[in-house]
Amino acid sequence: MRQKLVVGNWKMHGDRDLVNRLVEGIIDAAPLVGDAVEIGICPTYIHIEQAAKLLIAANVGIGLGAQNVYCEEKGAYTGEVAAPMLAQLGVSLVIVGHSERRELFAESDALIAAKFKAVQASNMIPILCIGESLEQREAKLTEQAVLEQLDAAISEIGIAAFHNAVIAYEPIWAIGTGKTASPEQAQEVHWLIRDHLAKQDAAVAAAVRIIYGGSVKSANAKDLFNQADIDGGLVGGASLEVNEFISICKSAD
Ligand code: 13P
After folding, report:
1. 214 lines ligand 1 (CB under 6 A)
2. Which residue among 68, 177, 234 is best mutated to probe the pocket of ligand 1, counting the most ligand atoms within 8 A of its Cβ?
3. Is 0.70 surpassed by the pTM of this model?
4. E-assigned strands of the chain?
């Protein structure tokens, strides 16, 4: 049985007060969410240490995540943050290849694969994001687009690396738009991804968690998470409100 995983991606939101309120609120409410669900939060880089202190003191098993990382271990890379630095702060999950990074910061498949490797080399778990644009979906190129992104990672990293990774299917047209993929639309792509992995390694395909992202909220989470191949969610906007986020986490139970 794959444990469900619900991760809040706070993107570029929050100040010190909001981070305190969110982390403390999630810590207080976490016992209401069953053990069958793993919870993670990804604040901005500069708020990670603040969140880490609260999470360590509370010790309720909420995973700390980062939204990005650089692939090199150290060096003259102004403005970048290395995987060992994140690991030292207690980070266990790192998002790589989010569509906002692919689109707004021109991240290539090769860079994303290098980041994935760097995350695992520091004993953290990468959450590899893949997903099609609206144009690709309308042109019936969803399968091609999603599997191309997946294959680009597998060819660099190898299938075995997915034993210790999470895949997030995030259709770009559903991110921040309020337009969620229907549970059936999402399940279809999650199944495609798992089936594609199964052709290369059945054990990896059975074990890897494939979570869904794109306008997940309490009103649609249960139907999404009930699908056979949807193992939880990567939640943007709705993770910035404690009650809404906890209600989404409970939907995965
Ligand atoms: P929203 O939940 O705001 O649509 O964002 C999804 C997302 O991009 C999570 O990584």
Report:
1. yes
2. 234
3. yes
4. 4-9, 37-42, 63-66, 93-96, 125-130, 166-169, 209-213, 232-235
- Residue 86, domain extent: 4-251
Which position has the token pair 């306008």? 215
CB–CB of 20/50 below 8 Å?
yes
Residue 92 identity (one-letter amino acid): S
Residue 39's nearest CA partner among 50, 25, 53 is 25
97 lines ligand 1 (CB under 6 A): no
pLDDT for 178: 87
Q: Cα separation of 38 and 33, whole Å?
A: 9
User: Given the CA of residue 100, which atom of ligand 1 is nearest to it?
Assistant: 8
Which CATH number belongs to the domain containing residue 216 in this structure?
A: 3.20.20.70
Per-residue pLDDT tens digits for 126-183: 999 999 999 999 999 999 999 999 999 999 999 999 999 999 999 999 998 988 899 9
Domain tally for the chain?
1
User: How many Cβ atoms are within 10 Å of 164's Cβ, its own excluded?
Assistant: 15
